[in-house]
Amino acid sequence: MDALAAGSDAASLSGRTVAVVGGGFGGLSSACYLAAAGADVTVLEKNGQVGGRASQFEQDGFRFDMGPSWYLMPDVFERFFDHFDADREDYYGLERLDPHYRVFFKDGDRVDLTPDRDQVRAVFESYEDGAAEAFDDYLVQSESTYEAAMERFVYTDRPRFRDWVDTDVFRSAPVGLNLLRSMESHVSNYFEHPKLQQIMQYTLVFLGGSPKNTPALYTMMSHVDFNLGVYYPEGGYGGVVDGIAELARERGVTIETDAEVGEITRRRGGFSLDTAAGEHTPDIVVSDADYAHTEQELLPEHERQYSADYWDERTLAPSAFLLYLGVEGDVDPLAHHTLVLPTDWDGHFEQIFDEPAWPDDPAYYLCVPSQTDDTVAPEGHSNLFALVPIAPGLDDTPEIRERYRDSILDDIAANTGVDLADRIVLERTFSIDDFAERYNSLQGTALGLAHTLRQTALFRPPHRSDAVPDLYFTGSYTTPGIGVPMCLISGEHAASAVVEDHG
Predict the structure, then answer these.
(1) Domain assignment of residue 446, yes or no
(2) 256: nearest Cα among 270, 243, 275, 240
(3) By 3-state DSSP, what share of the chain in percent is helix, strand and coil, each rounded to 5?
């Protein structure tokens, strides 16, 4: 971003005070960029630790990442640290996973996807004649889409229609055309076998969409998956949070935890922020809190960009049912990243987006970091969590959770051969009501706004408030969208907007 080009932003915000509301990845990222631009930056975090949904909890010798667990798009993280003339390796290490992930289909099939391209090609060919060559062609197209999309639409923010009247946009016409059809339609042009289609589309779960409602632009995620690789960061995602928070403090950012903001009040020449830790009076505010919460709860009605009806009409990304388990013994053959998929997953997506209900035959994800990291569980034990995407806003009672917990444990045993029920020594659930309470998330969504065609690019809420001068937004509701790498870039966009307006 031109406004934040390395070497050009130093001291451009000198004398300005900025409060960043929320210490998720978007908030920490914007704080780093703004501090590098010379601002006096304070991050105000509601909870006892920064990281937002990338929180951790520790108990009885187990350490759990509560949210993000797939380290994808390593190039985005490297670019972030490079901007500050820092080496990512000085903050946390990375280990490439092999296999990247394992898939258990509920008809008894089991597939490993590894860093070995020939192995993956052989898997595809085993399901469908010619699929290995189609896989190669798909990845060529995916890489091209990724490179064009990242440089012209992701790293470059285009918040207004006039920003799209640009030679870079016209040169990217094929990428634009991909926006006009669904991932389901696009993938079916390459692969007929439904299992191969699922493998090429599973990342949509992390983007908060379904194959039917997510634009084919996100074919670029296959390049991320198969070419860039899947990694495990030292210390889990908590290690990434700690590394970026350390970078922020080194740049002069003050981080206050247990400092929930109850109100954002506009005053002459700045703002008054009422927090549990006291009043803050910054010149500029960047909100990394849930966008709808900021507008509907922290601002007076006359300073909101959107009505309650606007938020009611949005397509939200799924919430999740999370089951954290400390287990005696090993959990082979589960891999670090494991997917358990019904051979027909349409019913699950329908129960998320069309007829909301707790899924009858869910597609779900199992994370077993103890397969890679022996510090996350006591000796002789395993650490894992199950994540089932579910519709936001469902009834979430202890009785429902207990029944669903039992059904998921039964499903794991039936479809992976791993019986956990009698070996559990630590257990915790986290679901819709927890997302709403801990993160102030709209209807308990785990991710924000889904990446539908009408909620992509400039159709997402803006970084600049149209109603309140000097109020900015970052995080998964804004561009470029959902996911840790995208939130890092969102923080850059928000900071760039601040520098353009005030630098």
Answers:
(1) no
(2) 275
(3) 40, 20, 40
Q: How many beta carbons lie within 10 A of that of residue 14, not counting itself?
A: 11
Q: What is the pLDDT of residues 230-286, one digit of tens each?
A: 999 999 999 999 999 999 999 999 999 999 999 999 998 899 998 877 899 999 999
Calpha distance 436→442 (Å, rounded): 7
Residue 146 lies in a domain: yes
DSSP secondary structure code for residue 223 in this structure = I
Structure tokens at 4: 């934040």
Rounded to whole angstroms, how far apart are CA atoms 398 and 413? 23
Nearest-angstrom CA–CA distance, 181 and 366: 30
> How are beta strands 364-367 and 381-390 bridged, if at all?
antiparallel
Biggest distance spanned by C-alpha atoms of the chain = 69
Residue 445 placed within a domain? no
Residue with tokens 């970052």: 474
Q: Does residue 280 sit in the same domain as residue 298?
A: yes
- Mean of the per-residue pLDDT values of the chain: 92
Domain boundary among 166, 198, 228: 228
Tell me which residue of 212, 230, 213 sits closest to 221, measured CA to CA. 230
Tell whether the model's pLDDT for residue 197 goes beyond 90.
Answer: yes
Q: Is the pLDDT of residue 330 over 90?
A: yes
139 and 215 fall within a common domain: yes
Classify 103 as helix, strand or coil: strand
238 and 89 inside one domain: yes
- Quote the DSSP letter at residue 217: G
pLDDT at 158: 58
Q: Domain check: are 346 and 395 in the same one?
A: yes
Looking at the structure of the chain, the number of domains it has is 3
Same domain membership, residue 307 and residue 319: no
- For the entire predicted model, the pTM comes to 0.93
SS (H, E, C) 131-170: HHHHHHHHHHHHHHHHHHHHHHHHCCCCCCHHHHCCHHHH
Q: What's the chain's length in residues?
A: 503
Cβ-contact 7, 471 below 8 angstroms: no
Cβ pair 270, 9 in contact under 8 A: no
User: Can you tell me the distance from the alpha carbon of 456 to that of 171, in angstroms, rounded to the nearest whole number?
Assistant: 19
Written as one letter, the residue type at 255 is I
Q: Are 456 and 179 in contact (CB under 8 A)?
A: yes
Which residues span the domain enclosing 360?
315-439
Which residue, chain included where needed, has tokens 């860093």? 115
Domain boundary among 203, 228, 253: 228
Element (H, E) at 392: none
Asked if 240 contacts 92 with a C-beta cutoff of 8 angstroms, the reply is yes
